[in-house]
């Protein structure tokens, strides 16, 4: 996914498409956080590099009515931005790993 020029772009079956606006996605996230019934924990694990950049690694655990979600999040020590996050939901049924880049980001053509 690419977040640029106020939109969120996703590549589906080889074609880039506008999936949503960044503002709309932020509003939805705020609504979900406001109405969520969840037990959340977060803890610092250690510092380690991500693509040569030092990052603080955090572990989170959430329990919601829909299931459990475990995440590991690497946050840049220099810039404070997320560099990577791995998510395990439904006890290993859904695993995702995302890497973030912040330089030279443009909307896809």
How many helices? The count is: 1
Termini gap: 13 Å
Question: Within the largest sheet, what's the order of strands?
Answer: 4-5-6-7-8
**Strand residue percentage:** over 45%
Overview of the molecule:
The protein is mainly beta and 109 residues long. The chain folds into 2 domains: 1-35, no CATH class; 37-109, no CATH class. The chain is 13% helix and 59% strand. It is built from 1 helix and 8 strands; from the N terminus they run βββαβββββ. It has one helix spanning 22-35; strands at residues 2-4, 7-12, 15-21, 39-50, 53-64, 67-76, 82-89, 94-99. The strands form 2 sheets. Strands 4-5-6-7-8 form a 5-stranded antiparallel beta sheet, with no helix packed on it. A 3-stranded antiparallel beta sheet has the order 1-2-3. It is globular, with a radius of gyration of 16 Å. The protein starts with a strand and ends in a 10-residue tail after the last strand.
Question: What are the SSEs and their pairings?
Answer:
Elements: E1 2-4, E2 7-12, E3 15-21, H1 22-35, E4 39-50, E5 53-64, E6 67-76, E7 82-89, E8 94-99
Antiparallel strand pairs: 1-2, 2-3, 4-5, 5-6, 6-7, 7-8
